[in-house]
Amino acid sequence: MSTVVLLIVTGLGLGALYFLIASGLSLIFGLMDVLNFAHGAFLAIGAYGTWWAAGFLPGAGPDGPGFLLALTFGVAAGTLAATLVELCVIRPLYGRHREQILATVGLSLAVPALLQAIWGADPLTFPKPQAVRGTVDLLGAHIPKDRVLLILVAVALFTALWLFNSRTRYGLIVRAGVQDRAMVTALGIDVRRSFTLVFAIGGAAAALAGALGGLYYGVVTPTQGMSLLIFAFIVVVIGGTTSLTGCAIASVTVALVQQFANYYTVAGLGDIAVVIVLAVVLLTRQGGLAAEKSAERVA
């Protein structure tokens, strides 16, 4: 029983990490119709920014308020990078999907190469605050505290993004701008500013995933964002490219399948099981789990 509880909770922790990454992808694609392959680069920048700040930024550190300052610095670095990418790269390419893909793929390769050139290719030990070290007991299972933290942060992010999509003026403006940008602009609304805000929020979510992913894995590497981005894309496709709720459900599903398959079968088979789930969903529900709600772009 304790083993099953451990697999479920750790699977939820992994699913929370996948959601942190995939939510930004879903937000940017669902509201802006931009397929951003550079999303993993924002994740890597957030991870390395947090790692650097924890060791070198005055006032920051691996524990208590110091780590919160380091985390804030990492998220801010990822948000700034996303904002600059939207302003300098994506904005001139709205409506030109082929060029968007080529540009963001190029960035996804360039940023890890830059990080590797600065800090090397070897994994760097990520600082873990004392508060999230060790385990907590749940039904006889010893649950790592960092998994619990990931779950709580993912729930908070889901709530915040849902409110932004469905309850704020900016969410409405962006959805309307995607449908008919000329009409919204004619009403005197600056759609470009709203698009930049959405892209920055997506980058912040990715950077947060990078920082907390460092807690999950214990290390950061230049290619960590690229490897996690693969699962993020799988989650977005399974959940529905425009549905935040579908993204959350798919994140949990993918992580649980991966955890149970890796434990009860051959190690590494979990990735194959995830691909099988992806194939089944594509064959049975075109548009993903939330296909019936995809037109809303808010659920």
TrEMBL record:
Chief location category: membrane
Alphabetically ordered keywords of this record: Amino-acid transport, Cell membrane, Membrane, Transmembrane, Transmembrane helix, Transport
Subcellular location, record wording: Cell membrane
A UniProt-annotated Pfam family: BPD_transp_2
Membrane topology classification: Multi-pass membrane protein
Family matches, as InterPro entries: ABC_transp_permease, BCAA_transport_permease
Domain of life, source organism: Bacteria
Membrane-spanning parts: 6-29, 41-61, 67-89, 101-119, 148-165, 195-217, 229-256, 263-283
Family: Belongs to the binding-protein-dependent transport system permease family. LivHM subfamily.
Name of the protein in question: Branched-chain amino acid ABC transporter permease
Organism: Nocardiopsis lambiniae
